[in-house]
Structures are given as structure tokens and as C-alpha cells.
Structures
1.
Amino acid sequence: MTQSADINPQRTSHELPPAVVFAPGDKVVLAPYGVGSVCGTCLRPVAGHERLYYELSFPGVTARAYVPVASPQIAGLRAALTEGDLPRLLKCLQEGTLVLPRQWSARQRLLTEVLMSGDPFALATLIGELRRRNQERSLPDLDAQTFRRAIKLLEQETLELEGQAAQQLRALLMGALAEDGA
């Protein structure tokens, strides 16, 4: 996987980041499927024009997903975590803080946004914050459901990673689930 260089210093903040290019065999994440791999690219007809798409496969799913090569970030396609990401992920899980609104509706909106983003570092920060709150006082039902869902999402993405940091991360996640009584 390579990332194209940003050669436009005039780029404004509302523009998309440079496109990421994936190669066959690259591990990727696409909600709602989870972690999968790039099989290759193919041309598909869209509105009378041929467009180039990444063809993605996911374990346990026979269907394939297709994401436009020109704009994978719009579809939410991103590179899967690597072992090199684990120290930062562990730090987010252990030390990250997230200011959660006291008002229920605003808090649920924020929690849903973090879950839907699929960003593993935001998920780790959310898990760490909710774990601290759960240790102080049991979480309300919807917060507890979000807590368990965030743990499952992060666990799924780190399942294939190996090494001491991966084991430590999984132990922290399982410990958080056990504390919640799930």
C-alpha cells in the first residue's frame, strides 16, 4: 500500500486527503464488513461508463465488495491496523480521554459517530473512557451497549495481529468486557 504525495500546498481543509493506493493482498477495513483483503481491481459499468473498482473479499462472507479506486476514502475503505500501530493504540486505550456530554442525546450522538467512524484509535479512546466511567459507576444501558460494541469492533480488527503488544491489547479488551459483565 502506498500513499500519493500531497503536491498541492493550497489544499483547503474541506478537501479529501490524498488517495491511498491498495495492492492485491493488502489487508483493509470496510464497514460493515470488517477486515478483508484486496483481491485486485476490475472494471464495472456505472451509468454507461466503465469505472475501476477494488474487489474486496471478507472471511466468512461469500459476497464481494467493490469500492471505487478513485475515491476509496468516501466509501470508508482504509488500511487495516498493523503491528506498528499497536503502541499508539495501546496508549489511546490506556491514557486517551474523551469528553462525553452529560446530556443523553448529545452523548449518544457522539458515541454513535465514533462507532460509525470505525477509526481504531477513536474506538480505543472511547473504550478507555467508558471503562474508566464503568469502574467508577455502572454505565447506563445504551452506554454499556456502545462499550461492548466498540470492544468487539476493535477486537475483530486486531485478531490477526501477533506479538506481545497484540496480546496485551487483547487482554485489556477482554478485561474490560469481564468488568462489564458481558
2.
Amino acid sequence: MRLPADDDWLLIVDPQTIFADPALSPWGSPMFAAAVPVMIDLAAAYGPERTIITRFVADPTLGGSWGPYYDDWPFAVVADDDPLYAVVPGLAGAAGHTVTEPTFGKWGGWLRSILGTHPRMTLAGVSTDCCVLATALPAADTGATIRVAADACAGSTPENHRKALELMGLFAPQITIA
């Protein structure tokens, strides 16, 4: 594992119960169990002061395409404090900051208020082909320098994980895959 640079942040995207196990949730990643120990090691290397964890929570009042989305996934429409949305053991308490958003992409006002306009960050988390991708692209587009820790990410399937990494790799040098 590469040690973090002094100005590098670790962003662990959505390491939550709802994504942890396909037997518990239709959104569970079969890759999650293997990626969590790597996420934990990265969080230890960065320390809580340079680690941020994001959480996805459902908000069916967003409107637009979110209405039909939640029609397809009604199990996810639960309160923010439901156990499905809890950060998994091993990462709970690992970050100095937690950002909760009702969207796939987490790059927005809350993250920019912590990281600044053009940060360097390492991304880990789930799902590589949804929330990690949807966070990486707009962050890079606004000038952030992104390193995706491939082995600390979990896709919805191994094939989708690979495809998402390949897609993000097309954005080099703004996004690099490690």
C-alpha cells in the first residue's frame, strides 16, 4: 500500500450495511467482504483526520427520476437511522468526517467545504460502478485529483467493477487507478 501524501484525503464511499451482503440486500456487493479489510487498512494509514466516509440515504421526495427509481427499489425507502444505512463495523468511527447525501454522487457542497476546491483524494468504497464512479467524475471535472484504490472498491459484480475502473481510467491524469 502506498502511503498517503500530506495533502491527500481518503474518501470511503458508502461502506454501509445495505451494500455489504447480497443475501441481506438486493444492493449488496459480492465483492464487499474482500474490499472492507483494504478500506480499513487505508483508513488506518490516513488517520481519522484525513478520512471521510460518505453515506447514501434514500430521499423519495427528490422528484424527477428518483420517483421511478424508488418504485423499483421500495426496500430502500427507510429512515436515515435504519440499520440498513449504518456504516459497517470496522469502519464505524474510522473517519473524522461523515457526509450523508441522498444521491449516488457525493461530490457536492459538503465535501467541498471539507476538502476545498481542488483536493487530492483517494477513493474507496461501493459500488465502483455507481456511487464511486458518480463521485469521481464530477470531482475530477471540477479539478480534483483522484486516485481510485481498485482493491478497496466493490462493484455490483466483478465485471461491472472492471468496466467502471476502465471507464474512470479514461480520465487520466485527473483520475488514476491504483
3.
Amino acid sequence: MSGQGGMPSAAGSGTTAPQPWVSAPTATPAPVAPTPTAPRPAPGGTRPGPAATAQRPRTGAPTKRPTGGGRGKRTTARRVKLAVSRVDPWSVMKMSFLLAVAAGIVGVVVTVVLWLILSGMGVFADIDRLVSQIQPATGGSQFKIMDYIGFGRVASLAIVFGVIDIVLLTAVATLSAFLYNICSALVGGLQLTLTDD
């Protein structure tokens, strides 16, 4: 006998009808994101470049940036305390000689220029006229200031004083260097404090 709907009945027969195979749906695994790996150092012990370090993930708490208008902490000036323990007499003599020569040349040039200015202004002629008015009229020779302070005599005196100045300044400076070295050996020298701004 057949059941309703044309389907064979399994109650009257000893065998059961084969059931169709139905597979159960399987869950697909979710894709796993690749974990970033730290770049390996290059051969030779060199560190990875900035492009490799930029890919490294940041770990830990974020760093705090200083606030307050974008101005960083002002660094204090360093102070260094030095002592001049010894002065080389030979170097002092050379430097003092050169400075004395320069001072002697300047002195000669200033003396000559000053004499030319006074002569151009007529100061020497006025002095001769004033002396001739004061001096009583006698049959002797008339006084002339140019006989005493002529250009040649003034220039010669300026050169002589310049040479004397060179010798004295060089000797005094060299002697002062020796005296400073002696005093420095006793009291420790001149103390200096230097700062970098």
C-alpha cells in the first residue's frame, strides 16, 4: 500500500527507504591579521634605518609633550674657573716690542701732523710777532721761534723719543712677566671665571 502523497510506507515492509545525505554547514575561520615583526639588523652591527623603525609598533604609554607655549627649559650658562699660573717671558717680550714699535710710529706721525697744522694756521708767526713786540729794540739778533722748534728738530726729537719708548716698554714688560711668574708660584696666579652665554 502506498501512503498519501505517493510516498511508500515503511510500516508494511521490512526495509527502510534510504534517506538522502545532508551535510551540516561548517563555520569558516575568521582571517587573522599578520603580526608585525621587528626588522632584523643588517650584517655588520648597523642599526635599522628610519624607514625600518617607522614600521615598528609603538608600545607603552604615549609620551607627554611639554606644554607652556612651546618654549623649552632654558639652559644655564656654564662657568669655568681658571688660573693663569705662568706667563712666557719670551712671548711677552715679542708682543711688547711690536706694540712699542707701533706706539712709537704713531707718536712720530702725530707729532709731525700736529706741527704741520700749527704751522699752517700761522701760530709760529704769531708767536714771533708777539715776542718781537715784547722784546726791547736792541741791535742784537731778533728772536725766532723756528730756530728752536723747526720741523727737522721736532721730527728728530719725536723719533728719538719713539726709540726710547720702544726700549723701555719692552724691558718693563719682560721684567713684569718674570715678576708675575715669581708671584704666581707663591700665591697661585691670577684667578679667572669664564662663562659661555
4.
Amino acid sequence: MENPFVISYRELRVYQAAFESAMQVFERSREFPIAEQEQLTTMLLRASRSVCVNIAQAWQKRRNQQAFIARLNHAETEAAATQVWIEFAVLCGYLEAEIGQELHHEYQQVLADLARLIEHSAAWVVNAES
């Protein structure tokens, strides 16, 4: 049964949080050294943005619960990867520890929200006969 109150993935709290966090990552990464552009910066930006993309793709796969869950699982892996890249940025001295902790916490919340969405995925599946 589809949730009648949400008509777009953009309305999902988890998408909004992931998008906002990805934008914060982008803003912070602008201060990283040029030497890290191909390695850390690109990988961090790619992972953080991929969380949002995977949520959007999952939304479009709601006719098939397993495909929906699989795409949400991809979003989870990208959120976890983002946390790892944030940790590298902190340990390399490109990101202040406090900011790194805040970003890590934001992605931990995204992970918790994704887990709840997966746990209750049946409520979000679109009935193909509707």
C-alpha cells in the first residue's frame, strides 16, 4: 500500500537530510587541497551524492519491493562510504574534527532512517494493479 501523503522522493525526510548533508560535504570539500582532488575529494563527493541518487532510484522502483529494498541498500552503503571518507578527511587534517563528527552523525541518522524505510518497505510499495 502506497503512502498517500508522499508523492515524491524529495518529500522524504531521509532524502532531504541526505541532500542537505551532501551539500555540506561539498561546501567543506572546497577547502581541501588540490592534490586531493582526484582521490579524497572526488570519492567523498561521489559517495555523498550517490546516497541521494539511490534514494531517488529506489522511489522509482517501488513496484517491486525487492528492487526497492536493494536500491535503499545501495544508499546505505554509500552513506557508510561517505562516513569513511569523512574520517579520512579529518585524519588527513583537511576537515576539523568537530565538523567531521557532525557530518558523521548526520550520516548516521541517514543510515537509521534508511534502515527504518527498509524495515517498513511494504508500506511504500506501489500496488501494480492500482
